TrEMBL record:
This is histidine kinase. Residues 18-197 form the Putative sensor domain. It comes from the Bacteria. The keyword Transferase applies.
Amino acid sequence: MLRPGFACSALPWRAAGYLLVSGVTGALLCAGLLVAVVVFGALAVVLVGLPLLAALGLVGVAYAPWERRLLRLLDGTRVADPHQVPVRPGLPAWLRLRYREQATWRELGFTVLAAFLLWPVDLIVVGGALVVPAYLLGALPLLLADGEQVNVLKVWVVHSPAVAGALGVAGLAAAALCAYPLTAVAAGRAALARLLLSPTGQEVRIGELVSSRARLVNAFEAERRRIERDLHDGAQQRLVALSMALGLARLDAPAGSALATRLAAAQREAGAVLSELRELIHGIHPQVLTDRGLPDACADAADRSPVPVEVRIDLSGRFAPAVESAGYFAVCEALANIARHSGAEAARIEGRYADGLLTIDVWDDGGGGADPAGGTGLTGLADRVSVVDGALTLNSPPGGPTLLRVEIPCTPLSPTPPSPTRCA
């Protein structure tokens, strides 16, 4: 505002537009809130209005985005949304999160101020800054059009064209002078809006942590797939070639000689290393998980389990790679614990997706008594699931049976559901 030429710049006009739009919006908001309070209060007598009155606590959540967009009209600066994304889809999870957030109540406070205090100030200021200079500037044209007199500001009757012309010059000066208080009021209102509608430092840090965690998860999964691909296409192929070369060398060696014996031992060792490498590759990121999804990957893990496992998985499409990876490795860790510690004779894997939640249950008829503090890998498994905002629960009373449940909030990537996986 202290720069030369400020009064002739576009900023006063943007300030006037900002105050005008916010004033009109505030007046409409005031009328709407008064009607809603009266109607909902009357309905509260029959208990119908009680949830509606409670819903008024979220009126700021609906109004604040509009106010944040208006701030861009003033100076073009974008104001971030302070709200977090619910970890679970659906209206109940959204409502629980919104009622717990401080940003919701700050937005409600600003909405009340805008509806019952700020809008009259906005309209008075923008009206005074625009109407008074406009009346003064229009004095001479109106006098010339009337031919006799003009009523300036409804308080001063002017008959002389010279006086009307002087009032026009005064109107130009008044318009330039009014640009300063007009812009100052608009800037003050915008500062108040930013104070109440912008995310606080803690909310910014939480948002950055959530975003960085998602980026780290995606980067970690991409690195796993890269290592699996490099091992599969590089080291594994070289070991296969080495095993074939040793086999051909055995054919050229004299039968029963020491050389033939050593070549056979070397070939067996190469085959063992190749088998271990394949298991390592499968543990890093199985190709079946990438190609065919979670149901077939779980069925493959069940086939490799020494305990008979029944698989019942019915999922609606594919999911994000991080979600599928977390669910798959949860199943693998659970099957490993069953084989090592439970003494079970049978196990079962069940998977389903409903209401935005992927649920995987792993059940066994073993001796129970599983303890996360006992070094069975359950703590690390819970950490892996929590990375994708999931939860792990364990029910393992002494004597069994044991039920491990993994719940991950997610959304299918493909709308077409695959055929259910049923195998034993």
